[in-house]
Structure formats: structure tokens, C-alpha cells
């Protein structure tokens, strides 16, 4: 252990961090907010270490040492804030980093004020950095809001190790100053710190790349399931989910209904008001479906200006009630938001036999919809009976 050269280990780590700080943005290309935060975190950590090295090259305790060391503390702690923001987004949470920011400010200001007192500044900086990391570890251990991979535990372990070593350095620096007079000296805790910092840095970057890959996979899945204009499920995703719901309705002997809705004279809307207004009408229609849907109702943009809703545990009356709520919602909102009345025709199909599939129900709903169009539009039919107007 005596042969381990702390200074060289930290130089190697800073060099690797610097390469990463430059290479990651270049190789990751255009990335979203979380990855940008993580990259910024790495850049700040790198800057922190460079300042720390620079401070060891100037007169010890002088103004340059004071300035460079304070900048180092500010960069390292704010780097952790950016990392914390990235981790929160990757865990599907809202960004909330008031505590890590408060600790970063408190640590940097306290460090600068107490700079001339070595035991104080070492104890203070290391203890608060350990505390800041603890808040990030706690966040990582909370159940995430989206499905995330094992990178979360990898990061939690890496950060916990860093936190323990920092806490040890805080105690040694503050209370055993004579045996621990500087950062790069050949002391056991420095050697452990240098070794763990090196390996944890490599593992943390691996975890960050894994988190980024996870997020990209989630985004691809979302794009594959969602209609990009309206945010509603697309036909493929709806068919998948509807198949499952239909099977479950057979298994538990529950009624299930399907409503196929088609906007009236939509070509005319596009021709008269322009394509952008047509797009807004589609988005408004989906807002309406969202507003009137209840738990268990699954809707999608089936294609063009056609939408489909599957209503679980719904009798024909419940499907009609849904249709009425939607017509009321449109009557209240369309003129106000679009400047004209938006109406639709619809067809209803209930599951009649255990052997019914979504396809057969869609065919029946389509026949009813065709009849509704033929009868003048703006109404809902469940073939062969006209149910509403
Ligand atoms: N703005 C916009 N228009 C779309 C989109 N998708 C399909 N359309 C248009 O929707 C129109 C559908 O026209 P039709 O099938 O004749 O339907 P319609 O005019 O509503 O006629 P009826 O259904 O019989 O009342 C076409 O002009 C399509 O170009 C879209 O994403 N945005």
C-alpha cells in the first residue's frame, strides 16, 4: 500500500475525466435534458479537480491557493447537483434539487470563509460533500416512477462508497490533523480515496451511459405506441391493449363495448381553415376524449380523423353515456377553441359472443358508423338501432 502514489492516481483520474468531459458530448451527439445535465456534471467535476491540482502548484495558503481551492469546491459540489438532476429525470421524477444546491452553496461559502483554518476547512468540505452525496443516494434508493435498469443500484453503490470515504476524510482532517496534513500525502485514507475515486468514476460513467440508453429505449417505445400529433395511443398499441382487455372481459364475464368515432366533414375543415387548424381540431378532439374517459377506458387515434374507444365493464347504456359526455364536451369547447363546431359520427359494437375478436367488433362498429354517416352524420348508431342524435 505504501507504494501507491496518491498524486499520480489523482492525475490519472483527472486526465480520464477530462477526456470523458470532451468525448462524451462529442460521441453522444444531440441528447436530451438529462444527458446534458450528466455531461455538465462531469465537466464541472473535471474543472474542480483541475482547480484542485492548480492550487497545489501555488504558494500554500496564499490568495491564489484560496481562490483555486474555493473554485474547486464550488465546481465539485455543483457538478453533483447537475448529476442529481440527471438521475431524477432518469428515474421519471420532477427535478427538485434544493437540498443539494443549498449544501453546495453552504459548503463553498463556509470553506472560503474558514480557509485559513486547515482542520476546519477539510472537515467542513468533506463532511458537507458526504452529506450532499447522501441526499443523492437517498433519491436513487426511492422507487422510481418509470421502469429503470440496474444502473440505479450501480450508482447508489458507487456514491455510497465515495460518501463513506469522504466522511472518513472529514473526521481525520478535522480531528487528526497532525496525522493527516495534506490531500496528496501517502496516507491510507488518501490512498483509499484515490483508488475508490478512480474506480467509482469509471463505474459512474458506465452507469450514466446505461441510464441514457434506458431512457432512449423508453423514448423509442413511447414513439412506437403514441400518435405524435395528438399524444393518443396509436392503432398498434391500442390493438395490443384491447386484445388483452377483451380476453379479460370473457374470462370475468363482464360486458365490454367499442366506440368508433369519425370527425364529420374533416376534409372541408382542412380546405376551409387550413391544415394547421385541422391538426388543432384533432388535438382538441383527443383532449375531449381524455376529459370524458374514466379508468378502464382505452382510446386511440385509429388513423386520420378516426378514433376508437374501448370501454371496459360497460353496458350499451354506459357506452351511450360516454358518447353523450363527449358530444357535450365538444359543444362546450369546439367553437371557443377553434371558431367552428366540431362534430362526429360514431358506431358502437358490444361484445356479443365469447368468440368475438377486436377485429369483428371493429367491423360491426364500422358498419354502424357507415350507417350514421349515411343518415346525415352527427349521430351515433349501434347497428341496427339508432341510439342517439
Ligand atoms: N390536418 C390534418 N388532416 C388530416 C390528418 N390526417 C388525415 N387528414 C385529412 O382528413 C381528411 C379526411 O377526409 P375524408 O375521409 O373525406 O373524411 P371527411 O371529410 O371527414 O368526410 P366524412 O367523414 O364523410 O364526413 C383528408 O382530407 C385527410 O387529408 C392530419 O393528421 N391532419
TrEMBL record:
CDD domains: GGDEF (cd01949)
Record EC number: 2.7.7.65
Record-annotated GGDEF domain positions: 254-385
Keywords: Membrane, Transmembrane, Transmembrane helix
The keyword Zinc is annotated on this UniProt entry: no
Enzyme class: transferase
Top-level division of the source organism's lineage: Bacteria
NCBIfam families: GGDEF (TIGR00254)
UniProt name for this protein: diguanylate cyclase
Amino acid at each position: 500500500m505504501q507504494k501507491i502514489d496518491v498524486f499520480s492516481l489523482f492525475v490519472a483520474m483527472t486526465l480520464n475525466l477530462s477526456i470523458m468531459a470532451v468525448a462524451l458530448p462529442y460521441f453522444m451527439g444531440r441528447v436530451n435534458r438529462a444527458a446534458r445535465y450528466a455531461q455538465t456534471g462531469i465537466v464541472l467535476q473535471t474543472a474542480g479537480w483541475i482547480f484542485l491540482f492548480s492550487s497545489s502548484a501555488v504558494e500554500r495558503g496564499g490568495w491564489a491557493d484560496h481562490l483555486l481551492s474555493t473554485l474547486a469546491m464550488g465546481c465539485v459540489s455543483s457538478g453533483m447537483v447537475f448529476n442529481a438532476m440527471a438521475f431524477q429525470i432518469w428515474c421519471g421524477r420532477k427535478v427538485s434539487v434544493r437540498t443539494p444546491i443549498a449544501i453546495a452553496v453552504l459548503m463553498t461559502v463556509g470553506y472560503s470563509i474558514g480557509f485559513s483554518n486547515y482542520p476546519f476547512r477539510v472537515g467542513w468540505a468533506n463532511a458537507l460533500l458526504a452529506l450532499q452525496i447522501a441526499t443523492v443516494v437517498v433519491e436513487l434508493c426511492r422507487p422510481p416512477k418509470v421502469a429503470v435498469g440496474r444502473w440505479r443500484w450501480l450508482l447508489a453503490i458507487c456514491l455510497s462508497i465515495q460518501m463513506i470515504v469522504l466522511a472518513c476524510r472529514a473526521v481525520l482532517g478535522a480531528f487528526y490533523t497532525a496525522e493527516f496534513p495534506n490531500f496528496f500525502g501517502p496516507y491510507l485514507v488518501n490512498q483509499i480515496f484515490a483508488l475508490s475515486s478512480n474506480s467509482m468514476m469509471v463505474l459512474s460513467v458506465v452507469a450514466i451511459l446505461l441510464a441514457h440508453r434506458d431512457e432512449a429505449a423508453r423514448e423509442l417505445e413511447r414513439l412506437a405506441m403514441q400518435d405524435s400529433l395528438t399524444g393518443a395511443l396509436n392503432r398498434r398499441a391500442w390493438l395490443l391493449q384491447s386484445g388483452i382487455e377483451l380476453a379479460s372481459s370473457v374470462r370475468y364475464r363482464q360486458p365490454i363495448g367499442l366506440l368508433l368515432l369519425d370527425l364529420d366533414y374533416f376534409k372541408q375543415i382542412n380546405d376551409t381553415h387550413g391544415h394547421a387548424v385541422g391538426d388543432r381540431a384533432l388535438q382538441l378532439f383527443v383532449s375531449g376524449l381524455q376529459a370524458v374517459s374514466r379508468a378502464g377506458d382505452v382510446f386511440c387515434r385509429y388513423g386520420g380523423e378516426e378514433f376508437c374507444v374501448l370501454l371496459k365493464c360497460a353496458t350499451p347504456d354506459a357506452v351511450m353515456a360516454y358518447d353523450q359526455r363527449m358530444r357535450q364536451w365538444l359543444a362546450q369547447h369546439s367553437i371557443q377553441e377553434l371558431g367552428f363546431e366540431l362534430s362526429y359520427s360514431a358506431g358502437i359494437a358490444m361484445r356479443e359472443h365469447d368468440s368475438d375478436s377486436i377485429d369483428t367488433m371493429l367491423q360491426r362498429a364500422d358498419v354502424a358508423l357507415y350507417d350514421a354517416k349515411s343518415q346525415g352524420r352527427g349521430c351515433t348508431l349501434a347497428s341496427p338501432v339508432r341510439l342517439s342524435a
